[in-house]
Write a structure and sequence with these properties.
The chain is globular and about 50 Å long. The two termini are 42 Å apart. The protein contains no helices and 30 strands. The chain is mainly beta and 406 residues long.
């Protein structure tokens, strides 16, 4: 059960490097009570030698992938993707942030403590207003918070086996959802103002749950035989892509009725999928894994495929491939060639360090991909859908190095 607290509203202490978007700023006046003003946080004293970079605990893109947030063992930093630059940072005296969630480019963020010395309890979600430079509210839970998702009208909090949905304006609890064990904090929400679609793990292995709040409808999709490792939702909530712990196949479903629309193959060997991302037009899907390769797949979500030609589930649905859909002329070798020869493969790849954790998103420029590494690396790459093959690296930065600040 979550509990709610609110903090006073002091005189604002604007951040000179970040201009709030007042059209998206939320009204928390109803939560505020008069209280003596606290002094604003002071910057650390300057030293003659540069301090070592902080430990990176979490990175996440904002909703339209135009920015990303980095949570560290001494605070958090916000970056612009294109052009790459640091927008601002907040550093605490030895206090770590394990998760920071942005709300587009708004001055409101959600923070969760983390690291060896958390700035806040890991059982709380702190609502931070960077225009004021302080927390203005909190949500408390009985167990550790594994993730937070934001919309302009909702806060979604993920704990081990539950998801809580709150109204953003007054932090009123609207809905609770039970899930299987979810230590990764898997959850995705649409961003359309006219409807809210939420995707989360279901109650059974390999199952996802889709909540259509405007339609008051719940849809369960048996996506894989293996446990769910990762999924992504388009901003309009119409398509959902899923990957299992096998990491070989990625499936794209109609989020409304659960129809399997397409199935693509990352590779033949088991891999851990770190992230999935749709392009803004849902024309492309990007995938990162522990194999050190980012793949881009072309999507055919509008194609009409007869029911009897869609991939059918089997005792091993992660390897189920329908040979009749193959573009290859190997029909006479049925039963001889491995099934993965008949899969849809990626149109572009980018090689990275194997074993490292990377998150992906599509850039604002056409056919570009942004890659964030837990080692502080930022890559901007371009792919050629006509000639396929390896992507071209356009930019590289280390966003943890002191000299990268502004």
């Amino acid at each position: 059960m979550a509990t709610l607290s609110a903090f006073p509203n002091p005189n604002p202490n604007p951040n000179p490097n970040f201009h709030p978007d007042h059209s998206q700023t939320l009204d928390f006046d109803s939560l505020m009570l008069p209280q003596p003003q606290s002094p604003p946080p002071q910057p650390p004293p300057e030293s003659s030698s540069p301090s070592p970079p902080p430990q990176l605990l979490h990175v996440s893109f904002n909703q339209d992938h135009a920015c990303f947030a980095a949570a560290t063992d001494n605070g958090f930093r916000i970056f612009n993707c294109d052009p790459f630059r640091e927008l601002f940072r907040r550093e605490f005296d030895g206090g770590g942030i394990g998760h920071v969630e942005m709300l587009f480019r708004c001055n409101i963020l959600a923070l969760v403590g983390g690291g060896s010395q958390p700035q806040y309890p890991q059982t709380k979600v702190m609502i931070w207003d960077d225009h004021q430079g302080r927390c203005i509210g909190e949500l408390s839970f009985r167990t550790v918070v594994h993730g937070v998702r934001l919309r302009r009208d909702r806060i979604i909090v993920i704990v081990e086996q539950k998801i809580f949905v709150y109204n953003f304006a007054d932090l009123k609890l609207l809905h609770q959802i039970e899930t299987v064990a979810n230590p990764k904090g898997l959850c995705a929400v649409s961003q359309g103002s006219d409807s809210l679609v939420l995707v989360c793990p279901g109650l059974h292995k390999g199952q996802i749950r889709v909540e259509h709040y405007a339609l008051k409808k719940t849809k369960f999709i048996s996506a894989h035989d293996s446990s769910i490792a990762c999924f992504a939702l388009t901003l309009d909530g119409q398509l959902v892509a899923t990957a299992s712990t096998k990491g070989t196949l990625i499936r794209i479903f109609n989020a409304d009725n659960g129809t399997l629309l397409q199935e693509v193959r990352r590779g033949a060997n088991v891999a851990e999928i770190f992230s999935l991302a749709f392009s803004a037009t849902a024309q492309w899907l990007a995938v990162s894994s522990d194999k050190g390769t980012v793949h881009v797949f072309g999507l055919k979500v509008n194609s009409s495929v007869p029911e009897n030609e869609k991939p059918q589930s089997s005792s091993n649905s992660d390897a189920a491939i329908n040979l009749s859909n193959s573009p290859l002329s190997f029909i006479k070798f049925k039963g001889v060639l491995p099934k993965y020869f008949n899969s849809e493969w990626s149109v572009a790849q980018f090689r990275l360090q194997e074993g490292s954790h990377y998150s992906v998103a599509f850039g604002l420029q056409k056919n570009t991909v942004i890659i964030l590494g837990m080692d502080g690396s930022f890559y901007k790459c371009e792919f050629d859908p006509e000639h396929r093959g390896e992507m071209t690296q356009l930019e590289y930065h280390n966003f943890l190095k002191p000299e990268s600040t502004i």
